[in-house]
Amino acid sequence: MSERRVALVTGAARGIGAETACLLAQQGLRVVALDSCAGDERGRSGVDYALASRDDLRTTRERLGDRGISVEADVRDAAAMEAASAAALDRWGRLDVAVAAAAVIAGGRPLWEEPSLDTLLEVDVVGVWNTATAVVPAMLAGPDPSGCRFVAVASTAGTRGLFHLAAYNAAKHAVIGLVRGLAADLVGTGVTASAVSPGATDTAMLEATARLYGVPRDDLSVSRLQRGPLDPREIAATIAFACSREGRVLNGSVVSADGGAAGGAAG
Q1: For the chain, how long is the longest CA-to-CA vector?
Q2: Which residues, in sequence order, are CB contacts of 12 under 8 Å at separation 6+?
Q3: In which element (H, E) is residue 167 found?
Q4: What 8-state DSSP symbol labels residue 197?
Q5: How many CB atoms lie within 10 A of CB 217?
Q6: 41-44-49-50 Cα dihedral, nearest 10 degrees
Q7: Residue (of 267, 190, 243) closest to 26 by Cα position
Q8: CB-based contacts of 5: which residues, under 8 Å, 6+ apart?
Q9: Consecutive sets of 10 residues in the chain, 267 residues long: mean pLDDT of each?
Q10: How would you classify residue 228: left for phi > 0, otherwise alpha for psi between -120 and 50, otherwise beta?
């Protein structure tokens, strides 16, 4: 069994997920980088923009070096998530951290014309649920539950209503409710659950959001105290703290990592 803490990160092929996986590895954790790589199969994602590809996941794996492995799996598939958790246990004998970063966005129209609710709920909410059900039992049975952290990536859309993003708002509100419920279920175990809510971050999802609104990307962050999109490495650093042993103080909390957004775009 490894003496190092072990993390599983979903949505790890690019963006916030990739930067989080690599930062955790730099901090000494062993990492399972997981992504569906749905960008390689047109129409599989259920959204109208390109998701991450196998090449993207391969790049993350190369950045991890001997500190991690990659797994291609869809967070909507509970059995696949159980297998990913088992892969961590088989390789290192433990699982201490999970970051549920996999998500998609859709919108650009009013609620009554939006057809994408099912897809957003399946990926953004059920995906987080499946991740939790796959990893939490391993954390509870592991050598150090008090050092175990479950962190979901939410969004500014999880605490406010954003124009023409009703389905995404609903999904991210649900993620926050899920995390708070999980934290309550984990009372007394040592394992904690929290959420980090990014604002407009320089990722492919921000590009997709800009297309939904039909505006330049940088227009989505004009109301932020820190002008311009956030760097995904900045969000990764916030997530990494939530994953740390010291991150226990965030149990049940939602951390706003939005650069002082006053109603800007989703993260």
Answers
A1: 52
A2: 18, 20, 21, 31, 33, 34, 35, 57, 60, 70, 101
A3: helix 166-185
A4: E
A5: 18
A6: -30
A7: 243
A8: 28, 29, 30, 94, 96, 97, 144, 147
A9: 92 96 98 92 67 94 97 98 98 98 90 94 98 98 97 94 91 98 98 93 66 59 61 94 98 89 56
A10: left
| Pair of tokens at residue 257 | 């990592």
Secondary structure of residue 21 in the 3-state scheme: helix
Length of the chain: 267
- Judged by DSSP in three states, 9 sits in strand
List the catalytic residues: 168
Angle at CA of residue 41, ends 83 and 22, nearest 5°: 55
Closest C-alpha to 256, from 171, 164, 121, 158: 158
Residues forming beta bridges with residue 150, ordered by sequence position: 98, 193
**pLDDT tens digits, 146-199:** 999 999 999 998 999 988 889 999 999 999 999 999 999 999 999 999 999 997
Task: Note the pTM of the prediction, 2 decimals.
Answer: 0.91
